[in-house]
Design a protein that fits this description.
A: 393 residues; alpha/beta; 8-stranded parallel β-barrel; globular; B: 188 residues; Rossmann fold; two-stranded antiparallel sheet; 20% strand; FMN (chain B); oxidoreductase (chain B)
């Protein structure tokens, strides 16, 4: 028996008409507001951006005996970024995880190599753990990457879900919240002010400090990485920074709550939501058919999660992920296009970034995915989301 | 099949005595099963600080990982101050959300008073259900008067214990088959 039959699947019943959208979304779609996200290098007239991200995991392919070397894995990631650029993908990012089964702890070094190997794709982190880093050094690294790449670098600052790096780098887990807030604030300040005066709890004070080099266009897009709950989205809204929302799986409508909460908080905190882009990040895998995509990707996700988190990914939940209303972008190219457009209607977001390399997916499959993105998925998404803008004009 | 018998208290001997009997019945009737007795009194376990369970070290890491690898867990618990002991609650707190998904959980309770009879129903089962366990609904409730010098002396309790062990194993086997069939049906 096959449970995932196309004709059995429920479809989102209603396309969201602009008139149903809350005011702040209507504002986002108005022609004169399309340039408002320039500070974050987002041009909405070109439609929604599509990116790839990797956590830099270095996991065995469950279908093979051994895993590739860390050397090969790092080269794979650099190669992936080059292929992404060739396919017309907008953005590529690399994360840092200081634990077993990961290889890009020095993610800024990998990003520098990618900056050198590419010419137009935007590059960033997914994410940079600002809590356990010195914001001055982080800024120096990223503005240097920005110069190497001639103005393509972005920072997505997060705070890690694991404690290993707190011990490794000598920080106290009890300061988890405050480390992040203080260092994130300092990072923003360095971005805004060329000469910084600052004092805080976790770093020596800065007196008329010039943090150089400065990025090519004066400032870097700095995003706040946010997990699933509205509580952390609200914090991004309070800070008045663009938000990167990670989602593993579940109904898209659940994640909409976080995005709504973010924009409401921006407004309440005196910011204009039309100036702040939202990006989502989640699992992605395309194959000829939805069933094939599920079957190819599942062992990687399940075994990879077991090793890195201690629990596999329930098969039932993964199977439900194929539903058009679920946020997991796994399926045939057509299914994925429909899902991403549905999510775009719900979220009004400016970028989606796809994680398709988790758990030792072999490189030929990654190439196949990039091919499907470049030839089928990306053109459809751009066409629809850009057309939407023109209709407004 | 991996079965863990967890004795959930640092205090007294009744729960451990009952768990010893349980493990004996398991060994006798299911020699092919892999059975581990974990008595919390024998380990130094830290309080949960919210980290991923893989990151605990020493005894804490051992207990958390042993439970996560089990197919079935028989929870033995006394009743303290009208609830489960803090030692047992801490074990739950060490584990992730949904930690008991695809596991069978059964319950054995020792208590000083018959007035405590509904406490596992009202306080332990909701935790197991929240953590997504498949629960053996009937539990064994053993009172002070059923013990004599670290032996269970009430035949009725002994029979009920035998049934609990059998129900735990049968439900685990059955649930494994249900799960296999269900996952097979997804076709990937």
């Amino acid at each position: 028996m096959q449970l995932i039959r196309e004709e059995q699947k429920s479809k989102p019943t209603k396309k969201f008409d602009v008139s149903f959208l809350p005011d702040f979304l209507n504002v986002l779609l108005k022609e004169e507001r399309l340039k408002d996200m320039e500070k974050y290098r987002i041009d909405q007239t070109k439609g929604m951006e599509f990116g790839l991200y990797t956590l830099g995991d270095h996991l065995p392919n469950p279908r093979m005996e051994a895993r590739i070397s860390a050397e090969d894995r790092i080269h794979e990631i650099i190669e992936l970024a080059k292929l992404a650029e060739q396919a017309g993908i907008d953005f590529f990012s690399v994360g840092e995880s200081h634990q077993e089964y990961f290889a890009t702890q020095a993610h800024t070094v990998v990003l520098a190599a990618i900056a050198q190997a590419t010419e137009k794709i935007k590059i960033g982190s997914s994410s940079t753990i600002i809590s356990t880093s010195d914001p001055v050094r982080v800024y120096e690294d990223f503005s240097t990457i920005d110069l190497i790449s001639r103005g393509r670098a972005e920072i997505i600052a997060g705070r890690a879900s694991r404690i290993g790096l707190y011990e490794l780098l000598g920080y106290n887990l009890r300061d988890y919240e405050e480390l992040y807030e203080e260092k994130f604030d300092l990072l923003l300040k360095i971005n805004e002010e060329e000469t910084v005066n600052w004092s805080g709890q976790f770093r020596a004070p800065l007196r008329n400090a010039n943090v150089i080099p400065r990025p090519k266009n004066g400032s870097l897009p700095i995003w706040r990485a946010v997990g699933g709950t509205p509580a952390s989205a609200i914090k991004a809204g309070m800070a008045g920074v663009p938000m990167f929302l990670a989602h593993l799986g579940g109904p898209a409508t659940v994640f909409k709550r976080s995005i709504d909460a973010y924009r409401e908080t921006l407004t309440r905190s005196g910011f204009d939501p039309s100036e702040f882009p939202v990006s989502t990040a989640g699992f992605f895998y395309a194959a000829e058919t939805t069933q094939q995509a599920l079957s190819e990707y599942y062992p990687h996700i399940n075994e990879g999660m077991k090793r890195t988190n201690g629990r596999g990914f329930p098969k039932q939940q993964f199977a439900q992920g194929a539903d058009p209303r679920d946020v997991m972008n796994i399926g045939s190219p057509q299914e994925i296009i429909e899902k991403i457009l549905y999510q775009h209607e719900l979220f009004g977001h400016q970028r989606f970034i796809a994680q398709m390399d988790f758990g030792g997916v072999p490189f030929d499959k990654l190439m196949k995915n990039i091919d499907l993105i470049g030839t089928e998925i990306l053109p459809a998404i751009k066409k629809y989301t850009a057309k939407n803008q023109e209709e407004e004009k | 099949m991996k079965i863990v018998a967890l004795s959930g208290s640092n205090v007294g001997s009744k729960t451990r005595t009952a768990m010893n009997s349980t493990v004996k019945v398991l060994h006798e009737n299911y020699p092919e099963a892999e059975i581990t007795l974990v008595d919390l009194a024998e380990y130094e376990i830290q309080f949960s600080d919210g980290r991923n369970y893989l990151e605990y070290e020493g005894d804490t890491g051992y207990v958390a990982q042993t439970l996560m690898e089990a197919d079935a867990i028989i929870f033995g618990t006394p009743i303290f101050q009208a609830s489960i002991p803090a030692t047992l609650k801490n074990v739950f707190d060490l584990l992730p959300q949904n930690a008991l998904e695809n596991k069978v959980a059964s319950i054995l309770v020792t208590a000083g008073s018959a007035k405590h009879y509904l406490i596992p129903e009202q306080q332990l089962k909701p935790i197991l259900a929240y953590m997504k366990a498949q629960i053996v609904q009937t539990y064994v409730f053993i009172e002070e008067k059923d013990f004599y010098r670290k032996e269970i002396v009430n035949d009725d309790v002994i029979f009920r214990l035998d049934r609990l062990v059998e129900d735990t194993v049968v439900l685990t086997e059955t649930y494994m088959k249900i799960r296999e069939a269900k996952e097979e049906a997804y076709g990937f």
